[in-house]
Specification:
Helices cover about 45% and strands about 20% of the residues. By secondary structure, it is α/β, with parallel strands linked by helices. Helix 1 packs parallel to helix 9 and helix 5 packs parallel to helix 6. The N and C termini lie far apart (about 60 Å).
Length: about 375
């Protein structure tokens, strides 16, 4: 099945649309999604479009739209987050990426707003947008969206937000909403699979102007496969509003329990849970090298978890580098050139249960018992 016409995904005139039924389903689904976005804390949202591509391609589509609006500008200012898609999308759009290193405050990595302002003023009309992030792996915390939005508004610079799995977190949604009311936010992008438990392959681009969202839709060339929107349509009808927000509330409780359980385990092995209170999805657990066998690589802990069917955990050694296109980032994975300690991250994601926490911590504890020298 497909939806959309040769010109745009949102073309619903049966005279021009070669898949009118699918297009109608898409419009209904977008209405349901808009209700979810507003009810999740971003009630200033005016419109959204579901795209048949994953988050990275949705960011690319958004950047290409912004380039059409301002073809003379090609610089994207990007507060660093070590996720490959965020580095690839601007470069694929033909933009120059200027990386803003975060500031270390306690255990948290926070936005260097002063540096962002400095770059905006220095490059002036060449700046296409600021690309910020909400949902992220600890110890990175959501960007200071309100401050960035105010800067963008006062300097007439576009603002694109990567909200990949932020719908499930009321703090992320609230940040976007407040930023849109106090400054400038052009578009915010999120994943379908991470927020709605559907297969990978779809995303949502939302914003605060119906005209802008319609223009983004027209940027997408031609028709698209309807599988992502069909999966979402069925899932939303199956869950209902009550079912969806029950999962959101469950995730918050899982986060609290995960933090307590990891703190108990950290006390046993002379480690600690990183204090990142503004990150309400991900938790970091230190891995002090001297606490483990000399002949073992810390990354083996992640491998051992994976072979025990624990997925999603990331071991960050704070070493090495990675080059993506023309951009090289030191200490890849840690979001910073200067983070002081290796760690492993765990996320309290949508759909996770308290029983999952028990199983995860039990398996993690078994691994630590074998590899620790404490």
């Amino acid at each position: 099945m497909v939806w959309g016409g040769a010109e745009t995904l949102q073309l619903t005139n049966p005279r021009y649309n070669q898949a009118a039924g699918s297009a109608l389903m898409c419009r209904i689904t977008e209405g349901l999604v808009l209700d979810v976005l507003k009810s999740s804390g971003c009630n200033n949202t005016k419109s959204c479009v579901v795209l048949p591509v994953a988050t990275g391609m949705a960011l690319l589509t958004s950047l290409l739209y912004l380039r059409q609006c301002n073809p003379q500008a090609s610089i994207v200012i990007w507060p660093r987050i070590d996720q490959g898609t965020c580095v690839k999308a601007p470069q694929t759009a033909g933009c120059e990426l200027l990386v803003v290193e975060p500031v270390l405050e306690g255990d948290s990595l926070v936005t260097n707003v002063g540096r962002v302002e400095e770059l905006i003023r220095h490059h002036g009309d060449k700046v296409l947008c600021v690309l910020t992030t909400t949902s992220c792996f600890a110890p990175r915390t959501p960007d200071k969206l309100v401050h960035i939005a105010e800067l963008c508004k006062s300097n007439n610079v576009a603002h694109l937000v990567n909200n990949a799995y932020g719908i499930q977190c009321s703090r992320c949604m609230g940040l976007i909403n407040t930023a849109s009311l106090n400054g400038r936010v052009d578009l915010y992008v999120q994943s379908l699979d991470k927020n709605f438990l559907v297969p990978v392959g779809g995303s949502i681009v939302a914003g605060f102007s119906k005209e802008i969202i319609s223009a983004v839709s027209r940027t997408y060339p031609g028709r698209g496969c309807s599988s992502p929107v069909l999966d979402l349509f069925i899932t939303l009808l199956s869950m209902g509003r009550e079912g969806f927000f029950q999962l959101v509330s469950q995730r918050k409780e899982v986060y609290k329990k995960l933090k307590i359980k990891l703190q108990d385990l950290a006390n046993v092995y002379k480690e600690r849970v990183l204090e990142t209170p503004n990150n309400q999805i991900s938790l970091g657990f230190t891995l002090t090298p001297s606490n483990y066998k000399e002949d073992m690589k810390l990354t083996e802990i992640g491998s051992k978890l994976f072979t025990r069917n624990v997925t999603g955990a990331r071991v960050v050694t704070c070493s090495g580098s990675k080059t993506v296109g023309k951009v090289t980032l030191e200490k890849w994975g840690s979001h910073s050139n200067e983070y002081p300690t290796p760690y492993i991250t765990f996320a309290a994601a949508m759909g996770m249960t308290e029983n999952d926490v028990e199983v995860l911590v039990e398996k993690f504890g078994q691994i630590l018992a074998k590899v620790s020298v404490v």
